[in-house]
Specification:
This protein is mostly helical. Helices cover 76% and strands 2% of the residues. It has a single domain, classed as Rhopdopsin 7-helix transmembrane proteins (Up-down Bundle), CATH 1.20.1070. InterPro entries: GPCR_Rhodpsn (IPR000276), GPCR_Rhodpsn_7TM (IPR017452), Olfact_rcpt (IPR000725), Olfactory_GPCR (IPR050516).
C-alpha cells in the first residue's frame, strides 16, 4: 500500500538493489563506508593541494579539481540512498530526481574531461620535458579547467532537457540507488525517449574521442618510458599510470554498458555492478591511485598529520 500511494504521486520511488529491507540496509552500510573513505581521501587531497606550496604545479592543480569532482559525485548519489534505506522512505520528488540527473551527468562528464587533460599533462611532462613550462603555463591550465567545467555544464543541461521530455506511465519505481537515466527509460510509455537516446549516442561519440586521446597520450608515454635507462624510473611511471588506466577504463566501460545497452524490465545484479563501477568505485579509488605512489603527497600528508604547524 505504501508503494502504491507513493508511486501515484508525482515523484519516484528508489528501491535500491533489492525489495528486501535487510539487504537494502546492508547495501546502504557498504556504500556509506565507501563514501566516507572516498570523501576523506578526496578532502585530504583538496586540502593539501590548496595549502602546501610544494603542490602548486599543473599536475596537482588538475588533481585538486579531480578530487573536487570525485567528492561532489559521491555526495550527489550515496547520501540520499543511505538516508532513504535507513528511514525506509525511498521517495524522491521529480524535481530532486532531475537535479540528481543533472548533477551526476555534469560531474561524470567533467571527470572524463579532466582525466583527458591530466593524461595530456602527463604526456607533456614525460615526452616533452623541455617545453613543459611553456605548454602548461598557469594561464593555459586555468583555461583548460574552465573549459572542462563549461563543457560539463552544457552537456548536463542538454541531457537533463532531453530527460524532461520523457513521459512516465505505471508505477514510478526505480531499482537503483539514484536517479539514473537508463532506469528512467524503463518507465517511459512513449517514444519520447528516442530524443535522449540520440543525446546518449552523441555524448558517447565525444567520450570515445576522449578515450582515444588518452590512449594516444599513454602510448607515447609508455614508448618514452621503455627507452629510459633507469629501471626505477620505469617502475615508478608504470606503477602510477597502469592503475590510472584501469580505473579510467572501468569508469568508461561500465558507464557505456549501462547507458548504451538496452535495459531489461526487471532489475539484474549486473546493472547493480555497473552502477557501482561507474558511480562509486572510481571516485573512491582515485585518491589512492594519485597519493599512494606519490612521495611528495605522502610527505605532505605526514607533515599535516604529525606537525603542529602546516607550512611549506
Amino acid at each position: 500500500m505504501i508503494v502504491k500511494n507513493i508511486t501515484t504521486m508525482s515523484g519516484i520511488l528508489l528501491m535500491g538493489f533489492s525489495d528486501n529491507h535487510e539487504l537494502q540496509i546492508l547495501h546502504a552500510l557498504l556504500l556509506l563506508v565507501t563514501y566516507l573513505l572516498g570523501s576523506a581521501g578526496n578532502f585530504i587531497i583538496i586540502t593539501i593541494t590548496t595549502l602546501d606550496p610544494q603542490l602548486q604545479s599543473p599536475m596537482y592543480y588538475f588533481l585538486k579539481h579531480l578530487s573536487l569532482l570525485d567528492l561532489s559525485s559521491l555526495s550527489v548519489t550515496v547520501p540520499q540512498y543511505v538516508d532513504s534505506s535507513l528511514t525506509r522512505n525511498g521517495y524522491i520528488s521529480y524535481g530532486q530526481c532531475m537535479m540528481q540527473v543533472f548533477s551526476f551527468i555534469v560531474l561524470a562528464w567533467n571527470e572524463l574531461a579532466i582525466l583527458t587533460v591530466m593524461s595530456y599533462d602527463c604526456y607533456v611532462a614525460i615526452c616533452l620535458p623541455l617545453h613543459y613550462e611553456v605548454i602548461m603555463d598557469p594561464r593555459k591550465c586555468t583555461w583548460a579547467v574552465t573549459a572542462v567545467w563549461l563543457s560539463g555544464s552544457i552537456s548536463g543541461t542538454l541531457y537533463t532537457a532531453s530527460t524532461l521530455s520523457i513521459r512516465f506511465c505505471g508505477d514510478k519505481i526505480i531499482h537503483q540507488f539514484f536517479c539514473d537515466v537508463p532506469q528512467l527509460l524503463k518507465l517511459s510509455c512513449s517514444k519520447d525517449h528516442l530524443v535522449i537516446i540520440g543525446m546518449i549516442d552523441f555524448l558517447s561519440v565525444i567520450a570515445f574521442a576522449c578515450f582515444i586521446g588518452i590512449i594516444i597520450s599513454y602510448v607515447h608515454i609508455f614508448s618514452t618510458v621503455l627507452r629510459m635507462p633507469s629501471a626505477e624510473s620505469r617502475s615508478k611511471v608504470f606503477s602510477t599510470c597502469l592503475p590510472h588506466l584501469f580505473v579510467f577504463s572501468l569508469f568508461l566501460s561500465s558507464g557505456a554498458c549501462a547507458y548504451l545497452n538496452p535495459t531489461s524490465d526487471s532489475p539484474t545484479a549486473l546493472e547493480f555492478l555497473f552502477s557501482v563501477f561507474y558511480a562509486v568505485i572510481p571516485p573512491t579509488l582515485n585518491p589512492l591511485i594519485y597519493s599512494l605512489r606519490n612521495e611528495t603527497i605522502k610527505s605532505v600528508v605526514r607533515k599535516l598529520l604529525f606537525s603542529t604547524k602546516f607550512t611549506g
